[in-house]
Design a protein that fits this description.
- The complex is a heterodimer of chains A (about 110) and B (about 120).
- With about 110 residues, chain A is mainly β.
- Chain A is about 0% helix and about 60% strand.
- In chain A, strands 2, 4, 5, 9, 10 and 11 form a six-stranded mixed beta sheet that branches. Chain A has a five-stranded antiparallel beta sheet with strand order 1-3-8-7-6, with no helix packed on it.
- Chain A starts with a strand and ends with a strand.
- In chain A, about 40% of the residues are buried.
- Chain B is an all-beta fold and about 120 residues long.
- Chain B is about 0% helix and about 55% strand.
- The radius of gyration of chain B is 13 Å and the shape is globular.
- The N and C termini of chain B lie far apart (about 35 Å).
- The chains are: A mainly beta (about 110), B mainly beta (about 120).
- At the A-B interface, β4, β5 and β9 of A face β5 and β10 of B.
Chain lengths: ~110, ~120
């Protein structure tokens, strides 16, 4: 079964810093990988989706990369802001599984 | 649009009782998803529907769980009988497309506590 791991579980940074969140998965046979944001007490909001054939996707201050062969993805957040504080989850759409496999998330706190 | 609507927002029940969670997807969306989130297991996809038809329920933990979608604007997730280990936040999401990774819009969730 696909296992998705996110390290660290929590991260605190001062405002303005650039940061990287990590996601690793055990089975490289994936269609795509998504990054989500979850605010406390809320559902998930999709941030970026990378197809298995792509290396990276960018949206504003966010950049997600994918190295399928090594089972890794990173989410880079530039010039972090307090409003970026949330839990960030990655999810893998595995080939033939009809399911999304989620990591346990990284809780980010950006300190003003 | 009001977004995905879930009810109740909070449910506290005793072990052995039947629990029914409700979801109204965004109008015009063709797919509906039920998720469970716990501290121990994270977020898990339980079941999803395309055009009211269940596509994959392999994520449903056991036979005590069942989900229905009688029409395009309503779905239920039922647990019978409930157990303390079912305590979690249950999310419903909907998307316009039929693929798993079409943009999903999440509801606010139902926090279930089984005593």
């Amino acid at each position: 079964k696909q296992e998705v791991t996110q390290i660290p579980a929590a991260l605190s940074v001062p405002e303005g810093e650039n940061l990287v969140l990590n996601c690793s998965f055990t089975d490289s046979a994936i269609y795509n990988l998504q990054w989500f944001r979850q605010d406390p007490g809320k559902g998930l909001t999709s941030l970026l989706l990378i197809q298995s054939s792509q290396r990276e996707q960018t949206s504003g201050r966010l950049n997600a990369s994918l190295d399928k062969s090594s089972g890794r993805s990173t989410l880079y957040i530039a010039a972090s802001q307090p409003g970026d504080s949330a839990t960030y989850l990655c999810a893998v759409d595995q080939t033939g599984a009809n399911n999304l496999f989620f990591g346990t998330g990284t809780r980010l706190t950006v300190i003003p | 649009d009001a977004g995905v609507i879930q009810s109740p927002r909070h449910e506290v029940t005793e072990m052995g009782q039947e629990v029914t969670l409700r979801c109204k997807p965004i109008s015009g969306h063709n797919s509906l998803f039920w998720y469970r989130q716990t501290m121990m297991r994270g977020l898990e996809l339980l079941i999803y529907f395309n055009n009211n038809v269940p596509i994959d329920d392999s994520g449903m933990p056991e036979d005590r769980f069942s989900a229905k979608m009688p029409n395009a604007s309503f779905s239920t997730l039922k647990i019978q009988p409930s157990e303390p280990r079912d305590s979690a936040v249950y999310f419903c999401a909907s998307s316009r497309g039929l693929a798993l990774t079409d943009t999903q819009y999440f509801g606010p969730g139902t926090r279930l506590t089984v005593l």
